[in-house]
Amino acid sequence: MTGVLSGVDAPAQERRLVTEIPGPRSRSLMERRAAAVSAGVGTTLPVFVERAGGGVVVDVDGNSLIDLGSGIAVVSVGNAAPRVVDAVREQVAAFTHTCFMVTPYEGYVAVCEELARLTPGDHAKKSALFNSGSEAVENAVKVARLATGRQAVVVFDHAYHGRTNLTLALTAKNMPYKHRFGPFAPEIYRVPMSYPFRDEPGMTGAQAAARALQQVETQVGAGNVAAVLIEPVQGEGGFVVPAPGFLAAVAQWCTAAGAVFIADEIQTGFCRTGDWFACDAEGVVPDLITTAKGIAGGMPLAALTGRAELMDAVHPGGLGGTYGGNPVACAAALATIATMEDLDLSAAARAIEATMLPRLRALQERTDVIGDVRGRGAMLAVELVRPGTVEPDAALTGRIARACHAQGVIVLTAGTYGNVLRFLPPLVIGQNLLTEALDVLDAAFAAEVPRR
Ligand SMILES: *Cc1c(COP(=O)(O)O)cnc(C)c1O
């Protein structure tokens, strides 16, 4: 895909290790980091970045690593994508900020128009823009409560919706996200997710939805529910793909109950799962949808989009923020969306699945420790267990991830039990890099796990 990466500074698309990982420059920067940066901010891989592009990240020691993380599903169009860089340069030279609520600018409106066009459903839609995914989720809850006059918000086991106080209440996992940061916001109710690998074998999406919704009806009361909030494919929770029909059943229940169905597509959106949005694969049309991560090629931008009557239920001035929909981030989003359309990055995500899934399944056949291989598009994962059980093996997951890192492949972990290796390559990654990264993964398993 050299044409995609024709920016003058695009790094060579290769894995190249010239020092141990991390190298001496990264190690000395890690010392400065430890002295100056809060210990509360974690590090997956202690290499400092000098530049990045396409499917590689180049560190300060000159090592070139294959990127299977995309900065957590953000740089789907590739790092420093040429069109994004040009749009940002042009906008930053024109003006950097006016505050959209003070004196508006076209880019913000154009992003909202694109969101109306691309998100599921052909009903009238409106949007508001924010800086982070967490902020978009908070605003979804605000809109749903105001529009319905109800308070309860239903969320699911293994859910991740952010790290601000309200979104921590919505997020499931204690360590490291919630631990001792409470008290958390009230009127949040958690119900079971459809998790095919861990549910009773054969449980259908409809059955899993009935299990969750019965709990809502008995413990919350359908008439008290402002919103049901769900990731159509769970992200940090371990790339859990609900059984077919689950999402649709939950959405239908919301319609009948007069509750707002909110899809959190912050990780799944913008071509990641092989469609513009993960809801598309099941024909589900959310009332509200939150987006961020892949939307703007790495610039901070998030959006809440939804039915015009819901979004307009809010009094003027009720939504906003100083930086929300910053003009530079909007320019980046427009260039990102144009890139996704021109290069058909949904098809690219499906092609990544076609390359990776058979390799991951073959790996599963060769060992006893991969309980499940799952995901959609370029959002794929393996769940590691003790042989012959479904008991999570987080320690092995960490060892495999570190072995990949040492060989110059950036992989991330996830999951409530910390036992999921997840793969989120940039959608523009070259086939050769992808294959090489899978070879490194195979070798890591071969070194850590006895063959079957
Ligand atoms: C990352 C993420 C968030 C939070 O987004 P931030 O930009 O980190 O605040 C919310 N929901 C989902 C599904 C996410 O993946």
Produce the secondary structure layout.
Blueprint: H1 24-36, E1 49-53, E2 56-59, E3 64-67, H2 70-73, H3 82-94, H4 106-118, E4 125-130, H5 133-148, E5 152-156, H6 165-170, H7 174-178, E6 188-191, H8 205-219, E7 225-230, H9 246-257, E8 260-264, E9 288-291, E10 302-307, H10 308-311, H11 327-343, H12 345-366, E11 370-376, E12 379-384, H13 394-406, E13 409-410, E14 412-414, E15 420-423, H14 431-448
The structure holds pyridoxal-5'-phosphate.
Pyridoxal-5'-phosphate (PLP) is lined by residues 132-134, 137, 160-162, 231, 235, 264, 266-267, 292-293.
Verbal overview:
This protein has 452 residues and is α/β, with parallel strands linked by helices. It folds into two domains: 24-67 and 345-448, Aspartate Aminotransferase, domain 1 (Alpha-Beta Complex), CATH 3.90.1150.10; 84-343, Type I PLP-dependent aspartate aminotransferase-like (Major domain) (Aspartate Aminotransferase, domain 2). The protein is built from 14 helices and 15 strands. It has helices spanning 24-36, 70-73, 82-94, 106-118, 133-148, 165-170, 174-178, 205-219, 246-257, 308-311, 327-343, 345-366, 394-406, 431-448, and strands spanning 49-53, 56-59, 64-67, 125-130, 152-156, 188-191, 225-230, 260-264, 288-291, 302-307, 370-376, 379-384, 409-410, 412-414, 420-423. The strands form three sheets. The protein has a seven-stranded mixed β-sheet, with helices on both faces. A four-stranded mixed β-sheet has the order 1-2-3-13. Strand 2 (56-59) and strand 3 form a beta hairpin. It starts with 23 loop residues before the first helix and ends with a helix. The structure holds pyridoxal-5'-phosphate.
